[in-house]
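Shipment paperwork, digital attachment
Item: protein structure file
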Amino acid sequence: MAGLAPAAREDPAQGVGEACAAGVSVVIVSYNGRDAVSDCLASLESEGSGAVIETIVVDNASSDGTPGALRERFPRVRVVANDANVGYARGVNQGIGLSSGRYVLVVNPDVTVTPGSVGRLAAFMDGHPDAGIAASKLLNPDGTLQYSCRRFYTFVTLLLRRGVLGRIFRNSSAVADYLMLDYDHDEPGPVDWVIGACMMIRREALRDIGLMDERFFLYFEDVDWCYRTWQSGWRVYYAPDSVMRHRHARGSARLRPSRHVAAHAMSLFHFYEKWGKAVYDVKRYRRVLTGALLLGSDLIAVNASFALAYALRSSLRGLLAKPMFGAAVYAPFLAFANIVIALSFAFVGLYAARAEREPGSEVFVRVLRGTAIAAVVLMASTFLTSQVLYSRVLVGVFCVLVAVLAASLRAVARAARGRLHAGRFDLERVAIVGTGPSAGRLAERIRSRTDLGYDVAGFVERTGEARQASPQAPVLGALRDLPGLIEAHRIGTVIFSDPSVPSDEVADFLLRARKSAVDVRMVSGLSDLLTRRATVEEFMDLPVIAFEREALFRASAGLKRGLDTVAAAALVALWSPALAVSAAVAALRGRRALSLVERAGLGGRSYGMFVLPRDEAPGPLGRFAERHGLSAFPALLNVLRGEMSLVGPAPAEAGSVSRFDARERLRFDARPGIAGLSQLADADTGAGNAAALDAYYVQNWSLGGDLRIVLAWLARAFAGRLGEPRPPAGKRRDGTRDHSNEGR
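Attachment content:
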């Protein structure tokens, strides 16, 4: 990866201050190294330059009593004791977040600081305003030089440094080049990267570089930090006038299996998955590859389903009157079925780009729809054949199995990809245009949804914007430089977070970046108005947004009501024996089997909602009923009475209609539901978001949407994840009333 570093930032010098005025914060991350940390802190106390203004030790749940020992011996040191080992990078970030110095010196606990070394390193940073990171010369305990400044890895270097070949080719020129053996280590100068045992970073540079990437639990966080320093226009320097001693063990270099080797290998994969040019090129065309893999998965499902259906039909040979033909006879039919099912799945959007990030319930509905279309075509083909060859029982069973197997294989693939995303692999890097509050909120929402597979690379500021520091997601550069930033930072998606960005700026970017193979999205100022039925079309040679009529018009509402009645009647019939037993037990205890609570329903009219009597402290049976959805069964009586629906907005508090704004009152255009979008929202969903979900449901109702919600509700009920702790019903987090979650 050598040679990729861009030209250094040409910032004018701010003036060279005295070392003692530099204000250095020292951050040390420890783990079961009490003696080593103590020696390091003792050396810092005797450093003598006066540059250090504070020292912060972040302990990653050491079991050797490190925090207590340090607090007792070094009372001026701030010690942060984590409850778990959160990793080196996160520990460093914790320390930086607590620091206040102009420079932050990150030091390993096995480093001994020589007198004046911190001050000299700070003075070097003062004298080199383009230095984002600078590192001291490191010596081994015996006083020999430790090769701590390096050139970026190459594939050959990797094989020689991290494999058995390194023991064979000990004098390789590639390793010598990597270790910079040709460099005069008594001379200061810019280098590719420095090992993280001792590195000083400028506070101003953190805005552009960002904190350490916490996907690196241990190892390669220093390589990544230095690489990002160069990519952000700053330089990495080696400053040999500052000298420190380092007890370097290189546990990751041992070839025998160990935790160090495993952590190093994982971090290595993370680094090349994040920055590797070949990996980035593959990600650019992931849709083609993903589509091919999904098509292959579906064809496996089709052929496996036929084999199972044929075996099942053969086992029924003696029970069915029609003869069973040999498998070879069905070869043309199977070839035809592969084509028809693949085309049907493509028709319903299972290979479209959006399907990659759709919920599992949405994918399942699409699979059912595609299989149904294919089944009609295949059944029709059995009537059109010149000879009666095909068993329609076989074809019917085959279609059912296709739906089950295709959905199952996709679910397995989604689960596998989810595991990759949870481990911070296969992420698509996102650049957010804008540095204001809306951009920050968008970045936080993206970071909270790791299952979507996005990684916020940073912000892109528009010309004249106020510069806003955000180390978690740094500012990558200006909008005019975005095409170049895309390649440098391996960007896969660009999101314009501010709908007020002038259209000519967006158009200019699209023209200059049309060959970058990135997705571009824009947050719309019409987000409160747009529904799934809003489309962009041409009208009198002008692009316009067309809004179709609302989804819950009379015919659709009647169909929904009919389905509710049939399903509720069947469920009540199944539930009635349990209700009878529950009523008998309640009568013996002098209690009622059901209770009524007043709620606002269709049109804002009040009704009595049937619920189970709620105890202040429900027992195990009560908690089981809540978590598995059994407590929702009484409301089926309201569905039969026409007061509720199986799926709809959350029931609202009676008499609350006037407290909702115009958009929130859309919920009263539909019957409240036992299940719904806001009912399935997580515990952190605020009142505004819950109301927006209810309004979205009413505007976008469809049978397929109801089916997806029911499937999601059943999945949570089966897993026992209904009735999880939520904010108190009827209260917003700011203390005002929240009527969106009541009656759940």
